[in-house]
Each structure stands twice: as structure tokens, then as C-alpha cells.
Amino acid sequence: MKGETAADAILIIGYGNTLRGDDGAGRHLAEELAERRLPRVRTRSVHQLTPELAEEVAACGAVIFIDACLGRSSDVASLRPIAPDTPLARIDHVMSPQAVLAYTHAMFGSSPKAWLLTIPGGDFELGESLSTAARAATAAALALIEQFVDEWFAKQ
Questions:
Q1: What CATH number does the domain containing 40 carry?
Q2: Looking at the domain assignment, is residue 1 inside a domain?
Q3: What pTM did the predictor assign?
Q4: For the chain, what is the HEC assignment?
């Protein structure tokens, strides 16, 4: 799109350990979204959240963090708004989404609107594949993100 800037984009960051079964659900979803090449959507798939993400987070209009959570087979993906930690959380090599936002605000003077999408899983043992329940929740989460993206840009 002509004239598009990073500030117009939604940044989606999926994170988790792909060697621990369902813990990799966030990364799997981020990678699937990257393959879809949604307009004005940028994706990152990372093992863990780190301070180095702050510059990219600061440059976008909105950010969605995607992570797995322990859940039951009846649980569904959940998208909820989040805000920076206050006061600034201890800066460490591994951070929560709220800590990344706080660090972004401290370093760049602001942070974008942000959401956390959690994907329920039940198998966090060693292994590289998602459980049946996590695959179903990831598919539902994909639809949730696509709807969010459509609604976000309709408001812009």
C-alpha cells in the first residue's frame, strides 16, 4: 500500500518453546499468519520476549502478543487488552508482554495499544507437535486475529 508506514501496521509476536509441545502454539500461529501475508500486518516468531523487541514494538500502531497457556480441552483462545507494567519492571533477558511495553515506553516515550492472545494447551512435554486441542484452539485463534485485524483497520 502506497504511503504505508510501520506506525500503520499491527505487529504480531508469537512466542514460546517449539520443543515443548503446546508451548510453541504462539510461534506456530505467528508463522501461519506470516504465510498469509495480511496487508499491514507484520509478524515475529520468537523463542522468548526480550528487550530487543522494544524498537519494533514502538514503531507499530498496535501489537498482539501470542502465547500458550495451560488449559482444559474445553477452553478457547482468549484475546484481552494489556498495558505496560507500572512501575517499570526489572529489565531482564526474558520478559512478559507487559514488561516489553514498559521498556518500550521507557526507551521510546510511548508504547502502542496492545493485546495478549492466549492459546490453551495441555501437553507441554518434550516434543515438536501441538496436541489436538492446541491445534483446534490455534485454528480458532487464527479466526479471532483475522477478525481483529479487519475491525482494527476498518476503524483507522
A1: 3.40.50.1450
A2: no
A3: 0.92
A4: CCCCCHHHCEEEEEECCCCEHHHHHHHHHHHHHHHHCCCCEEEEEECCCCHHHHHHHHCCCEEEEEEEEECCCCCCCEEEEECCCCCCCCCCCCCCHHHHHHHHHHHHCCCCEEEEEEEEECCCCCECCCCHHHHHHHHHHHHHHHHHHHHHHHHC
